[in-house]
Structure formats: structure tokens, C-alpha cells
Amino acid sequence: MATNTLIPTLDHSGEIPAYVARPAGTPRGAIIVVQEIFGVNSGIVKKAEDWAAEGYLAIAPDIFWRQEAGVELDHDIPAEFQKAIQLMLAHDFDRGVEDLKAVLAWARDEGTPRVGLVGFCMGGKIAYQMAARSTIDAAVGYYGVGLDQMLDEAANITGKLLLHIPTADEFVTAAAQAAVHQGLEGNPHITLYDYEGLGHGFAETHGSRRHEAGAQLADERSRAFLAEVLTA
């Protein structure tokens, strides 16, 4: 199990397992890394460690802990992919946001008043929800699914939100992408980037879906965006 820290929930219903990576010296801020549907696996751990190397306190909470703690799955193994889908379908996203508010509070208690969030796939949807439903300072969503069904929440965003949108995402139709652009463009709190011809999962740490140039470009934009908000 990759997690190394337990974070108490705000309602005292339990403790959220998380992988925490600490920088050398005083953190310049904190970043919550929200998993894909595959759990806190080696790819998510690597992303947390990369943020710690950039000087941030990085926290990767186990989103599925209420269903099955310690899940680590691989997209490229069919049986594990199917298990991940079932876990996602059973996930209570509203309660999950409340759990992440506890992670946000924990990060601030650690002495990092400015906190950002980076989420992938399912975590991309959660990044949008956290931007709209919490006091997170900045959120970044990679290929979030279902955002076109939550556009009414955009008016609640007071921090900053960056969304990475691959145009060939097999889980987000062209019509859904168009709705996201129509609903969110012009909002001063939101930045949208399209990635022409790229598919879902293009920025995964490793595996068959990764597109190296696209991943590097998106990650560079994320680093600049979060540095501007969290360390200004």
C-alpha cells in the first residue's frame, strides 16, 4: 500500500489514507494530487514526488478508501481496468468532496496556507468540483469527464481553475467539449487548453496512453499556473 499518512475526516467518521511527499526545506505551498480511477498507484506516487521536488508539500489521498483502501490498479490490465470502472461507478462524489475538504484543511494546518489541486480523469472532475465547492486556491483538471453536466457550478468558483481538454477524448464527446467551452470561456477564474488529436490519459506517468510531447506541454502549463497562484 503506497499511502503513508492518515488524515482525519471533518465529520470524525474515519481517517483518509494518503501518500504524502515533503520537499526539502519550507514548502512553497501544498498540492493535492487526485488519482485516476486506478488508485494511488506508482504513477500517482511519482506525480506527488515530482511536486515535492518542485518545493511543494504534495498529498495524494486514497479516494476509494471508503470502498476499498489501498487500491493500486493498472489501466493496461483488462481485469484491473474493469475493477477500476466499478469502483468509480460506486464512488460517492459528493461525500468524496467532503473528504477532500478535510485534506485541504490538513494541508493548511501543516503551515501551507495556499493549496492547489491537480486531478486526472476522475480526479479532473473532482478538480472542477473542488474549485466550485471549496476554498481551494487553485485547481487543475486533466481530461475530466462529465463537466458539461456541472456547468451551473462555475459561478461558485472564487479561486483559479485550469482545465486540460484532449479533443480526441474517447470518454468526452465533441458536443460535451463544445458545451464546456461555451459554458466556461469568458469566466475570469477559468483557463482552458485544448490538445488537438490527443486522447484520454495522455498525461499519465507511464503506460500505453501517454503522449510525451502533450504531457510535457500540459505539465509545464500546470507548473506555471500553480506557481503563479500559490507562490505569488
What does this structure look like?
- The protein is α/β, with parallel strands linked by helices and 232 residues long.
- The protein has a single domain, classed as Alpha/Beta hydrolase fold, catalytic domain (Rossmann fold, 3-Layer(aba) Sandwich).
- The protein is 36% helix and 19% strand.
- The chain is built from six helices and eight strands, in the order E-E-E-H-E-H-H-E-H-E-E-H-E-H.
- It has an eight-stranded mixed beta sheet with strand order 1-2-4-3-5-6-7-8, with helices on both faces.
- A hairpin with a 6-residue loop joins strand 1 and strand 2.
- Helix 3 packs across helix 4.
- The longest helix is centred in the C-terminal third of the chain and has 19 residues.
- The mean pLDDT is 96.
Structural topology:
Elements: E1 5-8, E2 15-21, E3 30-34, H1 42-53, E4 57-61, H2 78-90, H3 93-109, E5 115-120, H4 122-133, E6 138-142, E7 160-166, H5 174-184, E8 190-195, H6 212-230
Parallel strand pairs: 3-4, 3-5, 5-6, 6-7, 7-8
Antiparallel strand pairs: 1-2, 2-4
Helix pairs in contact: 3-4
